[in-house]
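ingest -> validate -> predict -> emit
validate: passed (alphabet ok, no gaps, 257 aa)
predict: started
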Amino acid sequence: MKLKDRVAVITGAASGIGRACAIEFAKEGARVVLADVNLAGARETMREIEAAGGVAHAVETDVADPAAVERLAGETLRRFSEVHVLLNDAAIQVNKTVEDTTPEEWTRELAVNLGGVFLCSKYFIPHLRKTRGNIVSLSSVNAYFVEPGCAGYCATKAAIIGLTKAMAIDHGKEGIRVNCICPGYIDAGLAEGYFQAQPDPAAARASAGKLHALWRIGRAEEVARAAVYLASDDASFVTGSALVVDGGFGSGLPPAV
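emit:
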């Protein structure tokens, strides 16, 4: 087991990639803290992990709220005494152009997607320093190239890569590794919301699959395996990296139909 006896805090664990990461981490021996604003969903993830013999604890958390994140850190230490991995997955996606995005939507998207990485890292780094732990955050291939109608989302995901590199430089000498993952279209969570926002969701979904060199959309568990790698000792000399897991989405023009 790659994460045996380690404690991992996973935000956005109620659904999508966050849930897949929580389940995969537990399979690899980690005790997982499931943080999400959707407590019912986090508890559902917890029950699935426990049914498989794993150890999990759900905590209602709005990652944009400093007090809530501070409580999450306190609850993690109260329950498990230490922490080895922070996985930042919580995110929202507003499918609008800058012109159409309201100031309130812009502020909330930045607060959750980027502010959540900042706040969780801020409150967990003192504890990760003690265990020489690591941080894994979810960015996106939209950090490198953008698609229509999701300006705020693309901006936040690009900023996560910069923040990842800054934290890696600042805390590497303390033994803390910091990396992020850039998925392509994944068959879970926010991508589904994006498809449903299009005029023809089924056609948008089919077209998205054909943008990838592998000619399909990815699975959440495929991203979760990449997260396990970065969180484990297999990646002991990897920090400041943005690992692209996109089925060849960003490699160039899609294959001919």
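The mean pLDDT is 94.
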